[in-house]
Design a protein that fits this description.
Elements: H1 10-16, E1 28-32, E2 35-38, E3 43-46, H2 49-52, H3 61-71, H4 84-96, E4 101-105, H5 108-126, E5 132-136, H6 145-150, E6 167-170, H7 175-181, E7 186-191, E8 194-195, E9 201-202, H8 205-218, E10 221-225, H9 240-243, E11 249-252, E12 263-267, H10 269-272, H11 288-301, H12 304-328, E13 335-337, E14 340-344, H13 353-363, E15 365-366, E16 368-369, E17 374-377, H14 385-403
Helix pairs in contact: 3-11, 4-11, 12-14, 13-14
Pyridoxal-5'-phosphate binds near residues 108, 142, 192, 228 and 253.
Length: about 400
Amino acid sequence: MSSPSTSVSRSTFDEVMVPNYVPGAIVPVRGQGSRIWDQDDKEYIDFACGIAVTVLGHCHPKLVAALTEQGNKLWHLSNVVTNEPALRLASKLTEKTFAERVFFANSGGEANEAAFKLARRYGNTRAEGKNEIISFHNAFHGRTLFTVSVGGQAKYTQGFEPIPGGITHLPFNDVAALEAAISDKTCAVVMEPLQGEGGILPATAEFARAARELCNKHDALLVYDEVQTGMGRTGELYAYMGLGVTPDILTTAKGLGGGFPIGAMLTTKAIADYLPFGTHGSTYGGNPLGCAVAEAVLDTVSDPAVLEGVQVRAEKIRARLDAIGERYGVFGPTRGLGLLIGAPMSEAWKGRAKEIVNAGWKHGVWCLVAGPDVLRIAPSLIIPEAELELGLERLEAAVAELCA
Ligand SMILES: *Cc1c(COP(=O)(O)O)cnc(C)c1O
């Protein structure tokens, strides 16, 4: 297929874009399922999904239908009036989760911003000075000033000072540290059920339970950032369901729109009442176009067959990755949940995960890193067997070439 867009290329990026990204060498122009093609019509197997976003692959017929149908009806109203897709999506999200109330945003960072503001307002309303937030080292919650501040990676706040205060960072999965730090001044404990950007590190069941109990004891809200782990990614609709711990607030984005930008904050009615009329808002949040697409994603991902398929695929990928890691000595045993898989680099390969990603591009497979030391694989939840096998073969060829 000839590309009409060849007048722009990767080098255009450096001439017209702010240099906060360094994109890969090729420019993809179309996708179908778990395959994408670049300007030269070279094909790649997609093991990345953007960054764990396109849970149903590219151009899924149900999503294209939802987008085009809504696109021909109504795109935007603002929140001065409500709309049917938002009401339907919120109804389904509350039916399928612990939540009773929904706030729509346009991204994960915005959903978290709403969650953290709600937690602050909850605490400040209930007791003087109850506004401290506890979060964890290596956590990632977005790129707004509040969300980088709650996030646990100093490199994302450096140079942006002064940053919001009242935030304490603790080691992840350390029950004793949490027990020592939490108090009646704490308004929220914020965690990812599995740290994604931080290196594909799952919370232990013990830690998850302890965080829940300590929040109960101190009247603090337990906030689960499920921006990356949500929408079937771990094999459950939301990862909290597999942990047996229910948060007070949950944020969801990435997979929610299957590639269309949308985010949401879910909570109970009692907590939602702390954000009354006028306290928070968004122009585009809950727009009919995004909500129509997300409704189609939610309907499709909720199918038990899709969720069961996640485990089957995950086992295949992990067995093969473990074998590759062992054979070439590049990475150690894989970890993660469902189709959010991390392969930690071996001693000899410390800091070199990106080299494997780059070799993958060359061999026609798109993978990700999660920090410098972890190769991350996050394919579509419905990636067909043939694409999965082909992607793994290409990844092995890439590793083999690097090690030759
Ligand atoms: C990606 C991510 C975010 C930020 O989402 P954006 O849509 O980029 O704002 C927040 N939290 C987690 C856990 C994420 O993985």
